[in-house]
């Protein structure tokens, strides 16, 4: 198709998302990691729009305080002069793009008129909706005002493409089309609202998919406003896209439009020049996980850390969507297989998610502290012994090694004995690290499959109902470091439009399990034949029953446990080698196509 655009016109790209300078979930990762490669192409003709939350923005936003003479700066001034709160500055991330953030409250009572019009024009009822929807509608209106003014001021000499991410950014999109504002629009849905709810609540979701009545289901789950904004945005954008073929099927049913394009998600990948560097990091951070494991388990019993593998899963608490159920079921089968085979290996599985809790379990904290004390005492004994042995060796005539006990003070011996005594307990190591506000499905399932950390179990479970951060006293690692220290990531999701978690393993050289119902798994199967050989295992959840898929997963893990250390090292090298495929410098081209197409469609 030949471009109909005037070659002399400048192009401007604007991306709009609720998660600009406001981290909530996966979309933040998409936008933020993509920025460097967008800036590389668009330079200063790339701007992002987001909501303004002062506390969140404080750490990642730097205002532009002078008149920069740009069309964006002028529109910002004009909106401010009408009493609207508009922040304009740089997002302090790699690439440092310009951003415009809108203070939603500054719309004041005008929000009521906006909501009335949503009803009058599109039959979107926002009566009695949760506050988040009200905020989203306010944000959408401010975005609409901004784009309308910008187009009026500059569309004669600039071609403007606007990319909206999710319904939370796009409630103003239908009006932009209705008013024929001169901007080309792309709308990307990163998951459908209805898909998220129905996959979680309707058994056999994929089989029933073609037969769902979107409106009835939206009413049933009380998400009619959200689902309708999403549907209208999909239908009224010049170009409609989603993140995977898996989600594209839902879009057809729930949003009434087949996506024009699929835009797979990438990361901004920085690889080490020396190949062995990431392997060294694995060892370094594995040591830190060892420390936690010693504190947590060794008060009850011990096992050989040289023969211990760390598996983990991580994600928001959508119990069956994220495949936590099948993971636990498969682990129970793995435990049985390992015991039957008389294996001396141990697998420690970390289930990382976020659930309401009161505090870290005091016993877990206490045992961690006691372990630290044992370590300090050992260090003190080591120093004392070393010094005295040296003196003795230098001064003495006897060339044989003396009895070392004589070099350690009674005080240190007693202290070590006492600490070890209070460290030891007859109780089983807890399988949950925090005091939960209430018992949840994870706890119930762990009990049901009896993975309760008995001494004879080859598979141990640590349920950590909080995301990992470096301030966390149990690990003292950030999420990326924790991933590096593990051996295998396990993410056999049932509902996952894309799924960054397996990709986050791949780029750190950690093998991973995904599923063919996740966008990432589906994509890898399309682009690579020998993915398993490269350390990416895909569980078939599309055509297998829960039971069959659990068996497949148990077998995958059992094979992994039987790999030699040499095999594991080779596999880590192979998986890390794939990373570049997912670098935005490669995947940006999908976005480029979407923007070009929107600009072409807008023109005629
Ligand atoms: C890296 C290091 C090796 C180490 C190995 C442990 O490859 O370079 O020195 O032996 O990790 O691997 P493992 O799979 O047992 O944690
Ligand atoms: C969504 O975030 P989620 O975890 O709620 O968007 C992500 C980015 O596209 C995607 O990776 C994920 O699968 C979706 O579910």
Automatic annotation (TrEMBL):
Keywords: Glycosyltransferase, Transferase
InterPro entries documented for this protein: Glycogen_synth
One GO process term, biological-process aspect: glycogen biosynthetic process
Keyword DNA damage: no
GO cellular component: cytoplasm
GO terms assigned for molecular function: alpha-1,4-glucan glucosyltransferase (UDP-glucose donor) activity
Name the UniProt record assigns to this protein: Glycogen synthase
Lineage summary: Bacteria, Pseudomonadati, Bacteroidota, Cytophagia, Cytophagales
